[in-house]
């Protein structure tokens, strides 16, 4: 399984990136190949001018195409996901998420913005053709705290939800399709017995 983690925060260090780091650790333990996109590192001019030919944009779109699973993390600003994430999603082809499973993550200052996952981000992910969008995880500032050393700590309640989400993510991706599940296993010719 290849998982692409998309950091939609304009900040270098953020609570939403801390959630991504926690998911990356859990996926790595499960044997997933993990890759990342920090949208803030892509060319700002290319993003804003929709320069589909810019090398950073081309590479990011290829990363999305190659992944079987996407984890998208964003801070919530003004009851919506970040503008940085919006301009990136706008550059993706209309079927960019076809056949892919997506786990949305978001952080915000208070619980009042948790519906941004369902009312703002989920419809966009759905319009890009995602096969499955798992229930999102929203964390407040009190649930992803800044330590004295300057790093972020994910509280136990959010860590447990991330554990559950990664388990579902792995089982959703590794589960055989309905067509594969109904097929008989191949039988080697040497095991075929015939009676008349």
Automatic annotation (TrEMBL):
NCBIfam families: FMN_reduc_SsuE. One of its GO terms (molecular function) is FMN reductase [NAD(P)H] activity. One of its GO terms (biological process) is alkanesulfonate catabolic process. Keywords: Flavoprotein, FMN, Oxidoreductase. It comes from the Bacteria. This is FMN reductase (NADPH). Residues 1-141 form the NADPH-dependent FMN reductase-like domain. Pfam families: FMN_red. InterPro entries: Flavoprotein-like_sf, FMN_Rdtase-like_dom, NAD(P)H-dep_FMN_reductase, NADPH-dep_FMN_reduc_SsuE. Belongs to the SsuE family. It comes from Acidovorax kalamii.
């Amino acid at each position: 399984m290849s998982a692409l983690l998309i950091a939609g925060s304009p900040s270098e260090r953020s609570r939403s990136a801390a959630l991504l780091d926690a998911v990356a650790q859990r996926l790595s333990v499960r044997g997933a190949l993990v890759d990342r996109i920090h949208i803030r590192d892509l060319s700002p001019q290319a993003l804003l001018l929709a320069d589909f030919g810019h090398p950073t944009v081309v590479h990011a779109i290829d990363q999305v195409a190659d992944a079987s699973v996407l984890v998208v993390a964003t801070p919530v600003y003004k009851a919506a996901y970040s503008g940085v994430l919006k301009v990136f999603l706008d550059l993706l082809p209309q079927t960019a998420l076809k056949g892919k499973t997506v786990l949305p993550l978001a952080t915000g200052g208070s619980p009042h913005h948790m519906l941004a996952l369902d009312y703002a981000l989920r419809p966009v992910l759905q319009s890009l053709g995602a096969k499955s969008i798992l229930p999102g995880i929203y964390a407040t500032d009190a649930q992803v705290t800044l330590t004295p050393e300057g790093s972020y700590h994910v509280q136990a309640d959010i860590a447990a939800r991330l554990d559950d989400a990664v388990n579902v993510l792995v089982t959703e991706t590794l589960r055989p399709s309905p067509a594969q599940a109904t097929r008989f296993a191949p039988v080697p010719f040497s095991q075929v017995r015939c009676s008349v």
